[in-house]
Amino acid sequence: MIQPPASKNIAIFASGNGSNAENIIAHLRATGSPLNVALIVTNRADAGVVQRAARLGVPVAVLTRRDINDPATMLGVLEAQDIEFIVLAGFLLMIPPFLVDRFEGRMINIHPSLLPRHGGKGMFGRHVHEAVIAAGDRETGITVHRVSHHYDSGAVIFQARVPVDSTDTPATVEAKIHALEREHFPRVVCEAFSPIP
Q1: 111 in active site
Q2: pLDDT score, position 3
Q3: Which of 27, 111, 129, 145 is catalytic?
């Protein structure tokens, strides 16, 4: 009898609504992936991702900035759930160096622009879409990249593009970006982590 592949546990770090987290969880479950979202980590107890995780039956760790930057606390939380991979999905705190080192090559982030444009500290969410409009960019998109020690500078593993029309506003650009995230991010998570033994 052929045994199914052993599951590999993912932690999703999120600070906001959690739509990407929910889409990833739903995709992994629907496809029978050996990847399993075993933990949601957030720095905000009032984040929408907390309610989504509860509805989906995924444990949540609400951690302060101090907790996240303390190796014993942060690694203890992850080790308790046997976490092998980390996905940043709208997580707004800088990842501490010890965590980048521990999960080197096994941590990815999604950014709502075509990096290297409109990346760096403070560039998240609506700020990015406002910058796209202000710059007169004719296209934007999403970038999925490995996490490094500097904001939005790790190796790019996937990009998807969408045109920016002259009538677009930050809100309409945001809607286009969310559509790209829904379409691509769960699949890219699978491709980024599944080949790793």
Answers
A1: yes
A2: 45
A3: 111
